[in-house]
Amino acid sequence: MSSALVEDLQGLLGERRVFADRPSLRAYAYDATGEKHMPLAVAFPASTAEVAGAVALAAFHDVPVVARGAGTNLSGGTVPSAGGLVISLQRLNRILAIDSGGRRAVVEPGVTNLRLQEALAPHGFFYAPDPSSMKVSTLGGNIGENAGGPRCLKYGVTVGHVLALQVVLADGSVVEIGSGLAADPGYDLTALVCGSEGTLAIVTQATVRITPLPRAARTLLVIFADLAASSRAVSAVVAAGIIPACLELLDRHNLGVLRASGFTAYPDSAAAALIIEVDGDEAAVAADAERIVGICRAHGAQKVRLAADPAERAELWAGRRAAYGAQARFSPYLWVQDVTVPRDRLTDMLQAVHAIAEQHGVRIYAAAHAGDGNLHPVIPYDPRDPEETARVAAADRAILAACVEMGGSITGEHGVGLDKLPGMPLQFSAAQLACMHTVRRVFDPVGRLNPGKLLPAAKGGF
Amino acid sequence: MAAAPASPVAYPAHSAAVAQLVRQAGADGRAVVPRGSGSRQLWWPAPAVEHLILDLSGLRGRPEINAENLSARVPAGLSLIDLQAALAERGLWWPVEHLDAPAASVSGIISAGAANPGLGRYGRIRDWVLGLETVRAGGEVLPLGGQTMKNVAGYDLTRLWVGARGTLGVITAATLRLLPLPSVRAGLALCCADAAACARAASALLALPEPPDVVEWVGGGPDAPTAAAQLLVRCDGSAAATSARLDRAVAALKAAGCPWHETDPGRLAAHWQARADLHRRLTAGSARWLRLCLAVPAHAGPGLSERLPAYLGGHGWALAGHVTAGVYTLWLPDGLAGHAVAALQGLRQEVAQQGGLLWVEGSPQPLPPEFGARPPRPQDALEAALRQELAPPPGFNPHL
Questions:
Q1: In this structure, how many other beta carbons lie within 10 angstroms of the beta carbon of residue B242?
Q2: Within a 10 A sphere around the Cβ of B118, how many other Cβ atoms?
């Protein structure tokens, strides 16, 4: 069956745009989680019609399909765990229109987030979602995961910036959903597909909202000797009526690895650092920054540094952006979580994470999009050590359970993929999961698209 | 002549009672018609006598406000005006306004996905709803979403329910995302001699890098209870920021040849009140009116508004629009009686050519078959299949 599929795909796309040899397939067997499953073939369509043709061929040969962008997924969402055909969307990489009057852009899914930002800047606009992977992750992947990022505190996550989609369904048919307008009648299928991790449809074109670049921005680095005080300061800033563009938190362990990696802004005595950015009108930004300084000092900040110029702003951000890389320097294997709690439970969740680390004998680095209550506990481990891996897995389950108990979500921006499937029954009842399965069957009755992801298998289902 | 028999109405006081009534209605083969404050109950022909109207006004109470999380859990029957008053006491607001029906229930507004004057700045209602408690067909209570700002676990069923007009189930409570109450709401009003001047002014405001948060177009035909054309402008935020933004708006208006405007708070309030009264004044005492929604890319709105008389002629009509979002409401007080269906079909065609949509939001009279409530869309088959599977007949709101 696989050779017949490959032959048909080569007939559609040409031999150079279909991989079926093992060395090439190996490169598409994994994503940023490291879990590996070999696909049968990888196809590189360059148009919606070619994507539709490839999906139709997969349907004809009864083979699963996994759509893939840059493979930066942190939940195993693009790992072809059921084998089948991987459709790489990287050749659909055109920015089709920038309509500054209509405040929208039309893009193909293989455009990277950064490329869109660079194309928009000369027009005086930006695209608000800014996942940490934005230099390489694609907009198709961002839409599939409903990606977030530091700026989402003020601007909202991806779904709020997607106006319309062109998608290919599991039978190879092409459908336009949404209208690209600020209002339309009918169900919001755009929001449903956004974040569906490629299980409902494959996005081949997106109309996205673009936002005017703010007139001014101020960035602060605030150091605290006490973690709980830092998260209380986060709540106090929001309670004061200020919605910063970004409100990021790094804990003691992160600051330690950053110091060891040459970042000198964090003293040994620091238990937490906040990176806070406000943007908007010049006068409002200056006033907000001043108020934030006062609030942080009132909550016991050790040190407050306000960036004086763009170079210093970049320097303050550098540590936050380098945190994951700094962790990886000390352990090549990292177990990454993405729990989100109501903002008022952030302090409780941080304390719970550190208690769980102690209880299970693991080290946990905690970084957070603190303003959103979105926490990324990262656990370094060695997968060759089964005993340590078991402790890490137990800590992972405990963190997910604590998050759900606090009214949170097991994933705020990384998606469920394979990684968080076991956590889904913690957060959702059988009835809620059944409702999601119903939605999935409407779009994809046989479960062809990205099977085994996002939803735990239904009884007798996929 | 005897009055037509009315549908039965039930008044549940909590979600368990809603679930019991929905279960019983399903067993009896009755469709359920959820009703919030009833602000839209006259927008469509009366439900069939065999349907059960579920009046949710009894699901009331204080909102549970979590100021630190900027969220509130709200019972379905709470009115928008009461919600905003309770939030204001805590220095918060839900950035949703409903000019035509400020006393509408929160669940009704969410179900309708109602457009909002601040749509251009704050986005759709769906982005301000974190979670819902719903009752599905069969009487199952089904919570959707949650209470966190970010949540990508599973499919986003919350946004699917928002704007579904009650066709997928009954909303019994909602968890809303909030914002700090702006310290200042400053504005101006621009009364123009004609629609052309108003369109120039609106285009000038739209061309600003950061347009005002609200730019409301109010205009109409010769019989409309409105000025020929008027713009109501508002900026929300701190005193410094709103002042700077309004200064830029005034400069843009001057450059567009529209130097004169009003800023007197009393006069502004009167203009806004007149706008809020439009729907009531245009529909009172009539069962013939038609209310349409017209959505276009924002920059196409002013020009289209200017050309409306070419389609609607000298007959009675009025228009109000959220200019920065490109979403307008068009009222025809005499319904299709004064307007040829062909004229509206022509308007629908031009709207489509501009990349927009024109659909009917309310008509107490049945529509003629040649003018459907909404134009066909490519996603219709998926919508129909979702409705069939998630809320099979007898289902909810079968007339929609």
A1: 24
A2: 20
d(CA B169, CA A461): 25
Q: What is the separation, in whole angstroms, between the first and last Cα of chain B?
A: 29
The string of pLDDT tens digits covering residues B358-391 is: 999 998 888 888 888 999 999 999 999 999 999 9
A47 CB neighbour count, 10 Å cutoff:
13
Class of residue A109 by CB neighbours under 10 A (exposed 0-12, middle 13-18, buried 19+) = buried
Contact residues, A window 391-430, toward B, CB-based 8 Å cutoff: 407-416, 420, 423-424, 427-428
> What is the phi/psi pair of residue A43, to 5°?
-115, 150
Does residue A459 surpass a pLDDT of 60? no
In chain A, what residues touch B164 (CB-CB under 8 Å)?
187
The string of pLDDT tens digits covering residues A207-220 is: 999 999 999 999 99
First-to-last alpha carbon distance for chain A, in angstroms, is: 21
Residue A345 DSSP class:
G
Cα gap A454→A436, rounded to integer Å: 10
Measured between alpha carbons, how far is B117 from B217 in angstroms, rounded to an integer? 10
Residue B147 to residue B251: CA distance in whole angstroms: 42
**Measured distance CA(A161)–CA(B156) in Å, rounded:** 15
Q: What is the pLDDT of residue B1?
A: 44
Examine the pLDDT at B12 and tell me if it is beyond 90.
yes
Q: In the block, which residue shows the tokens 């890319």? A: B297
- What pLDDT does B5 receive? 66
With contacts defined as CB-CB under 8 Å, which chain B residues touch A340?
A: 148-151
Give the C-alpha separation, B272 to A274, whole Å.
Answer: 43
Q: pLDDT digit string (tens) for A258-305?
A: 999 998 888 999 999 999 999 998 888 999 999 999 999 999 999 999
User: CB neighbours of A457 closer than 8 A, spacing ≥ 6?
Assistant: none
Q: Which two tokens stand for residue B171?
A: 């909303």
Q: How far apart are CA A33 and CA B333, in angstroms?
A: 61
Q: Which tokens sit at B211? A: 């347009």
Please choose, from the candidates B123, B164, B351, B317, the residue with its C-alpha nearest in 3D space to the C-alpha of residue A183: B123
d(CA B188, CA B268): 7
Taking the C-alpha atoms of residue A321 and residue A114, their distance in angstroms, rounded to an integer, is 15
Instruction: Check whether B2 has a pLDDT greater than 60.
Output: no
> Can you say how many angstroms the Cα of residue A301 is from the centroid of all Cα atoms in its chain?
30
Pairing of strands B141-145, B92-93: unpaired
Distance from CA of B348 to the nearest CA of A (A): 14
A281 to B180: CB separation less than 8 angstroms, yes or no: no
Is the CB of residue B184 less than 8 Å from the CB of residue B238?
Answer: yes
> For the residues B13-24, what does the mean pLDDT come to?
96
Closest CA to A368 of A330, A399, A331: A399
Cβ-based contacts of B378 with chain A (< 8 Å): 175-177
**In terms of Cα–Cα distance, which of A96, A84, A235, A78 is closest to A145?**
A78
Question: Rounded to an integer, what distance in angstroms lies between the CA atom of residue A270 and that of residue B311?
Answer: 69
Asked if A315 contacts A263 with a C-beta cutoff of 8 angstroms, the reply is no
Q: What ipTM score was computed for the predicted complex, to two decimals?
A: 0.94
Q: In terms of DSSP H, where are the helices of A361-385?
A: none
Beta strands, E only, A154-257: 162-168, 174-178, 202-209, 211-212, 216-224, 246-251
